[in-house]
Design brief:
single chain, 400 residues, alpha+beta, FAD/NAD(P)-binding domain, D-Amino Acid Oxidase, Chain A, domain 2, eight-stranded mixed β-sheet, 36% helix
């Protein structure tokens, strides 16, 4: 049986980017995807300004621009009391992102482009291939897959799991954990949403929040995130979606003449992360490694940046033929170094969203201090370090 250098499970942004980065180094890479492209994926569909740097590295920016994505200049945040502020990526705070805007486009388009890029770089894309189990066997890993032709077994020196929020690989290897707060998202595309501009929006209510973002060609991504501790799902996703919209008066008004162009799809619960993202001959990347809360909207950037990190460490391990967990542990350290501040930011924001009075106060303060709002949105946009928000002068603007 042929033993490949690497098998990457899942051809979302994390998996396709990882396969690209390894294949362009000359490694023999198989990229496994259980569906066929194009395929839908419930997601906020927003890429922060720093994501464009990695898209440039992958060589796909021009192709994505031909698909007509929306360019988002920032974010508008609305509190339960109705207070709001707009934070912009281009500001006078002295920080500059790779681009002055974020991109937003449907995942049916983005994921297809990234999977094509992986093939262009030399990876073999295997669609209609569902992973049943990953086993660690001696000097290699075995991947049992189900295809239209039946069950097969593939082998590789290293396996990189990018199989999403409910990663089978993380579960089988006992690497995943679940947080205490359980939120789910109901996601659809709509036309005719009134008063959309060139910023994304987050409308916070007493039991969750709604994200609105243009994704090009007159479509708006509408994502309702609900806390399961405060509400119970009733009926199919479309019925639950319709009921939850009524809890957000501005959103309900603006969607009065809208038409849903895609089925309402559910995803979650969120707040999952791993004890570590490495095991013998196995590494996790993207949502398979961690996912806290979609409010800060950095999931696709984290997937792409994580792909850079995991590919660097995997290449090092393959070149040295050292693929045991202790040899891969540097990847866990890399993740803490690169994402540690953002993890704290995500958790603090997620906690504030769950406390309406606190969130009302913060938004009211940021509405009075536009530069402070720009800084916070810059942290969410991945080009300002979280440590900038910990300066006493900044904290004072929030609490005074």
């Amino acid at each position: 049986m042929t033993i490949r250098d690497a098998i990457v499970i899942g051809a979302g942004p994390a998996g396709s980017a990882t396969a690209s980065f390894l294949a362009e180094r000359g490694f023999d890479v198989a990229l496994l995807e259980r569906a066929r492209f194009p395929r839908p994926k419930p997601c906020a569909e927003y890429l922060s300004p720093e994501a464009s740097r990695i898209l440039d590295r992958l060589g796909v920016t021009q192709r994505i621009e031909t698909l007509g994505p929306a360019h988002l200049a920032g974010m508008r945040i609305i509190s339960p009391s109705g207070a709001s502020f707009v934070g912009r990526f281009v500001s006078g705070h002295g920080y500059k992102a790779h681009t002055g805007y974020g991109l937003a486009l449907p995942r049916t388009l983005l994921d297809s482009v990234l999977a094509d890029a992986a093939r262009t770089h030399g990876a073999e894309l295997l669609e209609d291939t569902t992973v049943e189990r990953v086993s660690q066997e001696g000097a290699s890993a075995s991947v049992a897959v189900r295809t239209p032709n039946g069950v097969e077994h593939l082998k590789a020196r290293i396996v990189i799991a990018a199989d999403g929020l409910n990663s089978r690989t993380a579960r089988h290897l006992d690497l995943n954990r679940r947080g205490g707060r359980r939120r789910v998202a109901l996601v659809t595309h709509a036309t005719g949403v009134a008063d959309m501009t060139n910023v994304g929006e987050m409308h916070v209510g007493p039991r969750g929040y709604v994200g609105l973002a243009p994704v090009g060609h007159g479509l708006t991504n509408v994502a309702i995130v609900s806390d399961l501790s405060r509400t119970d799902p009733i009926g199919p996703p479309a019925d639950w979606f319709a009921r939850l919209v009524t809890e957000f008066p501005e959103v309900e008004r603006r969607m009065a003449g809208a038409h849903l162009e895609s089925p309402v799809r559910a995803v979650g619960p969120f707040a999952r992360w791993t004890r570590r993202a490495t095991a013998d001959r196995v590494m996790l990347v993207g949502d398979a490694a961690d996912f806290c809360d979609p409010f800060t909207g950095e999931g696709i950037y984290s997937a792409l940046r994580g792909a850079e990190l995991v590919a660097d460490r995997a290449a090092e391990a393959l070149n040295s033929d050292k693929t045991c967990a202790r040899d891969l542990a540097g990847y866990d350290a890399d993740r803490r170094r690169v994402f540690g501040g953002k993890w704290w930011f995500e958790r603090l924001v997620s906690g504030a969203v769950a406390l309406p009075a606190v969130f009302n106060h913060i938004v009211s303060r940021l509405a009075r201090h536009p530069m402070a709002g720009d800084l916070m949105i810059g942290v969410a946009g991945d080009f300002i370090p979280f440590s900038r928000l910990l300066r006493p002068s900044y904290v004072w603007q929030l609490v005074a």
